[in-house]
Specification:
Layout: E1 3-6, E2 9-12, H1 28-31, H2 52-78, E3 95-96, E4 102-103, E5 109-110, E6 114-119, E7 131-132, E8 135-136, E9 151-156, E10 162-164, E11 170-173, E12 183-192, E13 204-212, H3 219-222, E14 246-251, E15 260-262, E16 266-274, E17 278-287, E18 296-306, E19 310-312, E20 319-321, E21 331-341, E22 353-362, E23 372-381, E24 386-397, E25 408-414, E26 416-418, E27 422-430, E28 435-443, E29 452-462, E30 478-480, E31 490-499, E32 514-523, E33 534-542, E34 546-557, H4 583-586
Parallel strand pairs: 6-13, 15-24, 26-34
Antiparallel strand pairs: 1-25, 2-34, 3-4, 5-8, 7-11, 9-12, 10-11, 12-13, 14-16, 16-22, 17-21, 17-23, 18-22, 19-21, 20-21, 23-24, 25-27, 27-32, 28-31, 28-33, 29-32, 30-31, 33-34
Length: about 575
Amino acid sequence: MARSSVVGVFEQDTIRGQVDWKTKQTTSSSRRQLCSGTCHSPAMAHITSKRLSDTFSVRIVVFLLVGYLFEGSSSSECSNVDTKFNSDGSCQACYTGPCCSNYARTKPYFEMSYQVTELTADMVGSNDVVYRASANDRSKCVTDDCPCGNVVYTLEDDSGTFKIDPSSGDIRVSDSSMLKRQHYTVTVTAQNKDDTSTDATDAAEMTLSIKSLVGEANDAYNNNDYSGYDHHRSRRAAGDPPANVTFDLVKLAPNTNKTDMKVGQKISFELTITFPSGTTDMLVELFTPDNASIIMMLCGVNVASVGKNLAHDGTTTPEHYSIENNLYYDRAVINLGNVTNDGTDTSDPKHNQIVINYDAVMLDTVTNNGSTYWVSAGAEYNYEADVWVGQASFVCINDAETFSTTPTINFTGPAQMSVGSSAVFTVDIYMPYPSVTLSFDAFAPLNTSNVMSICAVKGKDVAVNYDCGFDITKPTHTLHTEGNVKGNARGHLDLGKAVNKGMREPGNSETDNRLTLEFVAHLFEDDTFVGQEYWLGAALEIGTDQIWAGQIKVVPTAKVAGKLSWSYLPPASNCDGEDPREQTRHH
């Protein structure tokens, strides 16, 4: 059967547009201005008989007097605090407020609270950098004369093997003769340079796991010189299981160094858990920021691989949870149960590892633009005696954006329908926006009643970029007669908000940004319709300022006997009071 298609037209709503929000700031000097325009004073009530020039002179005196008194009161308000004014009346670096007495320091933070690095043979010299710790500080200045924007680093290392430069954060080996382990864990602390507080909450901490490729594997040890070492410890092969459980949480390319997120942005993570020999119980929990509303949602949570040395009695299927009881999942739990490592294959460390992949996608629910939020991974093991947590921080940006690529919609369906039959019409949508609210309407031919009826409207499927936080098949339609004696003049479908998690990815394919809708239209059985032209309509509202509308021509033909085919069957009585499934008995 011939099919017809049409691409509709967009109309831009110029009334409902974007609003630019601007923040008004008041400087210290502007706070001292008394007024603009005319300032009224009670003293002026007694000079009405004076000449205009005299009146003007008196007003100047009154202004100066009032201004002097106001300055005096302002100075009085600040007399009991330690003010930090510059000579021009502005606040010194690190200070804000009407009296320039509020310290503006912000707490530094690490992008990730857990990091992993390797120590190789070329890093054991006193000047060789093993790792550079870097904490961010969003204070208002970062120059040397602005201590609130500078960070000082300290290091906790129970082995005494490493040291840190307090200014740069560079970690070096302090004594290479101490390198006798194959794994070290140190804690790096970052504080503001002028911070004299003993409150631990003013500092940021990061745990650094250092995998040593020297130490027990150094030259002397490799040459079977075991002097100075515990002889009961055996030399490990590259793929030997570790002594303890280790965790490695990383951001994947292309966002390895990404520290900010925009609406629809997807950051991919990989969590690698390496198991020691024997049995370890393991429960993994992934979660996005813990807020009253969900800021980011978890997508694509899956156990990517289980090493060949490992067996477990739990599950690799994640359980998803949402504090809003919707499809925006902010927590996922994988209960691996008891994981047993037989350690038989030592050829590759991957045989001892379980790898978990997941994505965090930012929603448009951020109210404090520029705020920092954390994506976390945690694990409980050894019967809840041990807990590990790794985190990555992101600055969330929710600025108004303009996109050069616009949606395209393709409306297709049969060009002909036999009287008394029903047919499926398809609306295929390319939607390149990161987050948008959608609603759809299907219309029976306008200005003609009792010819056709809209029986059902539904979402059919989506491409990969819309498969998280959005189920196009879930919304149910509403049908409206709108004065028709027979059937429904309109079918409506509120699709809700669709989040595109791949729109900002490089090389994003158009086919990954598609949504498909379907509706069923019924042509009433009347031979007078044959050969006439009727137009079915469709409209898609995109956000608050775009509407697409299209129509498709249908020409009725004579009734055809035989069974009709349906993509799905709408409920009874949706078309003309007759169950559409009964049509196969009549034709």
